[in-house]
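Table 4 source record.
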Amino acid sequence: MRPLTTIEEKGDFLDEAERKGWTLFFEHDPDTAVADLERTEEGIELTDRRAIDA
C-alpha cells in the first residue's frame, strides 16, 4: 500500500540483520533456503547462500 515505506522498512531490517549477524531463511525461494548478510561498498548483500537438504 505504501511502497516507499516498505522500501525504507526493508532497508532498516537488513541493516539490523547484518549488524546482529542474523541468518535469514527464505521459505519460498526454490534455490536459496538460507543465507547470511555482508555489508559491501554497494550495500548489504547475501552471502553463503545454501539450500536445506531434506
